[in-house]
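Deliverable D4.2, example record:
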Amino acid sequence: MKTLKILVGIAFVIAISAFAIDKVSGSSTTGGYSIGDVATDFELKNIDNAMVSLAGYTDAKGFIVIFTCNHCPYSVAYEDRIIALDKEFKTKGYPVIAINPNNPKAYPDDSFENMKIRANEKGFTFPYLFDDGQKIYPQYGATKTPHVYILEKTNQGNLVRYIGAIDNNYKDADAANEKYVENAVNALLKGEKVPVETTKAIGCSIKA
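Output generated by the structure prediction step:
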């Protein structure tokens, strides 16, 4: 019995220590942001070689942050819809900020030079940033491309209001009857609660 108590005590201390380390590092036990968390800003290189940060968007009400890439068929299938989201919501205060989280050494198609080519081919209307060193996507907890995080700019900081997929049909935009990102941003613009706050991101795994 005494041995059991000692083992339970050790396990408790280990659990508390792990929690403390996790809190110091700024990450959550779920491996990224949850709804209501404050997202830290970043400064990443855009395809025009300019450095982009959220703080630079002084007039924004929030952001549609999308982790995406060149090669993934899911990302490719959503490119036109991402462009449409930016065109619809940028002027309303919610621009798209696209970030390529993949390691180009693991997947050369996602190199910075190829990002420039793809953006030009598709006529991207939004920043397409390179997560050099793969430092940002783990903070967010992104696991797929595409993976969306909608942030609302508040006095507390950029609060996470939605995490997940763009809609419920990656194959066919016309067949999608649940437009999660569109509905979320429209709700925020009206000062309403986001109707669906989290969904499962469907796409390719991020290449480390």
